[in-house]
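HUMAN: Quick job: go over this next protein and say how the chain folds.
***
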Amino acid sequence: MTVKRHYANLYLVQSSPVNDEFEANLEKERALYPRYVEFPGPEGEPVAADLHEPVDHSVLDDAARNPRRNAYWLYTRSNSRYQTLTFGDERSVRNSNFDANKETIIIAHGWINSGNSEPNPTVRKAFLDQKDVNVITVDWRRLARSGYVTAASGVPAVGEAVGHFVNWLHTAFGLRYENVHLIGFSLGAHLVGNAGRATGGRVARVTGLDPAGPLWNYNRKRLSATDGVYVEAIHTDGGYTMGGLGIGSAIAQVDFFPNGGISQPGYMTNVCNHNHAWALFAATVTHNHLQGNRCSNGLQITLNNCRGELLSMGNSDLRKTGNRGSYRLDTKRRYPY
């Protein structure tokens, strides 16, 4: 099934958000987790996700028919209150503070949240305090606030729509792909992966903050190493066995496993460990101080005896490069960690 869309005189063909492969893998994915897992809610509180719920096809069909319903909120140093950019409406961009010559940071939240939720406020402030950039928050709450299984199955289509939004900014306003950094937390990490894929992998950076694990271990539409010029993932609640909120395996070009990637200092719950990914990343945008050693295998990560070359985790360098592989680092309990 395909759905044709018209945006600013550009015809795009978008695949249905529900596909046979996703549904075929559901039982295999569900076998890796308990039925109920708790993700962070709008205030960081635990919210239970039912991995056995049926897919709500009416919500997904609406997401496929109306991908413009993603909201794009622009923040710059000239406006502390967001300005709404409307996909296909050039006036909304021209009447805003968007500057296509500046670096553009695009941030996507996770399940059950909105553009007002973390990591958006903290990561946005870190970037704007450091650089004069465009920061665009993707508010995809219409789908994100559905059941977890429904939201997860619709993430590829929503991410593709975000990628087409970037393509439109490139075509209509001259935004250079090499000036774009896509950042997503939890389900949002897979969303921005699909967004980068929709640009042909041309965006400068894609950063996945503890990419969601449930329903993504066998999912070929998860964040991948080819979604951007440089693709990095930070794993804080995964490890090498299933069961954490984050995916435990290396899936990007460069994968960082702070404190081993399973649990974080001072935290006792999966929700806190999961959230720590965006807190660590924001700290590196400000301080660029956390470095990991490259590891030869997963056992080295577990035993904390990685001795390979050093690479900075996170940060805001759009031209960042690093040898592919997994990196381990240890952090402190208190900011800036």
